[in-house]
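Hi V.,

You were right to ask for the full record rather than a summary. Here it is.
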Amino acid sequence: MPVLSTRTAAESETGVLRSPGRSDVLDVVGIGFGPSNLALAIALAEHNQEVPEADRVSARFYERKPAFGWHRGMLLKDTTMQVSYLKDLVSMRNPCSRFSFLSYLHARDRLVDFINHKTLFPSRREFHDYLEWSAQPFGDAVDYGREVVDVVPVEEAGEVTHFQVLTRAGGPQAEPTVQRARNVVVAGGLRPRLPDGTSLSDRVWHTSELLDRLETLPAGAARTPRSFTVVGAGQSAAETVAHLHGEFPDADIHAVFARYGYAPADDSAFVNKIFDPEAVDHFYTSPDDVKEMMFDYHRSTNYSVVDIELIDELYRRLYQEKVAGKQRLHVHNLTRLLTADAGDEHVRVGIEFLPTGRQDVLRTDYLVLATGYRPTDLNGILGSAEPILRTDDKGRVCVNRDYSVESILPGPAAIYLQGPTEHSHGIASSLLSNTAVRAGEITKALAKRLVRDIDAPRAPALTAAAPL
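Predicted structure:
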């Protein structure tokens, strides 16, 4: 069992595990610093403003990226959010927060202009700027460019009282350092999902890196891409097709997907209630067959679906090209990707038309995989702590309603999850819709769970500087 006693923690062969002094034990370590743990940092800071000093929470966050960022590769011009600005980092939990999207607009001197814009859905670039604005005051509480490589439970008197969180910067050869924490909150985000048999290269990209890749294309008219192939049928795929079609007016754009056509997202008012906070309670308390039914019924709210306006725009472009007799947009529906062989000058993309089984090869300059994301592997993050987490008969971690993971060992220390909880908390787990409310629930759970020696030295409580 990979649990360190207090004595072995102090004498670990790694040489980096510090002796168990109380003042270096934080109340919370956050793994990842995207929107979810940013919302948690805000909730903790606001909690600390409202409670006596003895009840304030200390926290630190580790983010493997060098700076704050959220889907930077898809910050395409003219793309908008698919969720209301009112579902920002705080408003559903605390509408009076100084970290609301409206406060951001006021700080940027755009509040009146935004009101006149008459929209609930800001551009993706503007919302990203809001997230960066919100993250800036927590710079002193975040270590960017530092990756968590292990989380080691520490046992004292038969209970897990805290964790040793090992982090490193500078690559696999760098020596890890340790931060002790009573609780760990994992918000590791998502990783690109790649089709079987494919790998990323200079000519095979995932949409998560689209803009970065486009910016590094060789200059010169003779080197301008003549063709792109985009695999996928969801919002990112359709946005990528539209963007490439507009930005490269002389290039052929091939859209490859197994569906008959792009399917519209269902964002109607009643169906959207699946993202309401109370829907989490309904889902969590439902038997497994009802949870599965809810997923099947409402998959069209989020998975492999596209805004109807974008579908109409792509169809308009396709039709007008047929009218003009010069077609650049090619839709390969009912078609699946078979192979992707990248060479120095192009990619040979093997495809199969499913109704007949006919196979063809597209010779394309660049292949873009708009094939979605998968949750970060918890074992890769939690390491030594993973064996103490209780799992169900399907191998999924058992998650309590407050987002803490059930442990097979007793003790006040806990691990919380933000993101990979669709199986327990529903379809909105990895989306922005419930981020503010979830952060508040975890903050309350942490404040209630903390067990500390009041007379011992303590780490400074988390605070936030004034936003820019």
